[in-house]
Write a structure and sequence with these properties.
With 182 residues, this protein is mainly β. 0% of the residues lie in helices and 50% in strands. It contains no helices and 18 strands. The strands form 5 sheets. The chain has a 4-stranded antiparallel sheet with strand order 4-5-6-7, with no helix packed on it. Strands 10-11-13-14 form a 4-stranded antiparallel sheet, with no helix packed on it. The protein starts with 7 loop residues before the first strand and ends in a 9-residue tail after the last strand.
């Protein structure tokens, strides 16, 4: 393709022979002819328009999840460490969504087993360029999150029944549950 029309996809190259919680992140040309190992030991990754986020667990801090943000050339912009919750065979990655500045996500208060955890979550914003983390709201439930493209409003909940205004730190319930028993 002329003039930089080269397109790539990314995937975690899980080995079939030795199951593991981590895998290398691989960049593959769209035609499938060229694969390049970009990063090692990644648990999960996600990409936005001009950023990539990887999640891993440092060997020396097994109770923490490390979120690393990079630009499209894999230059590290920032990273943050947060407590994480373990599950039977892996870790729970709390719900999150991208904003123009970084991500908004839920953070547990401490590390524990996910089925025994009762501490609630903080809703935090993370600036992907600086790694600055700001607590927006306390005592939240880890639930699906969908933010507007400009990041000024988010819908949260399993039915997206709450409107969160991150800048104002306010929550508006869009649907009221009616628990009337007959």
């Amino acid at each position: 393709m002329p003039n930089g029309g080269f397109k790539s996809s990314f995937f975690l190259d899980w080995g079939n022979e030795n199951p593991s919680l981590f895998a290398p992140l691989v960049k593959q040309s769209i035609d499938g002819n060229n694969e390049t190992k970009v990063l090692a030991d990644i648990f999960q990754f996600d990409a936005a328009k001009d950023r990539l986020m990887t999640i891993t667990v440092p060997a020396d801090q097994s109770d923490q999840a490390m979120y690393t943000f990079m630009d499209n050339d894999f230059r590290k912009l920032s990273s943050i460490s947060v407590p994480h919750l373990t599950r039977f065979s892996d870790w729970l990655v709390p719900y999150y969504d991208w904003t123009p500045q970084g991500i908004i996500t839920f953070q547990p208060l401490y590390s524990a087993e996910s089925d025994m955890y009762a501490g609630g979550f903080q809703l935090i914003s993370v600036d992907s360029e600086t790694g600055d983390k700001e607590v927006l709201l306390e005592d939240m439930e880890n639930a699906p999150l969908s933010c507007s493209p400009n990041g000024t409003a988010c819908l949260a909940g399993f039915y997206l029944e709450e409107l969160i205004m991150p800048d104002k730190r306010e929550i508006f319930r869009l649907v009221e549950h009616n628990d009337k028993s007959s």
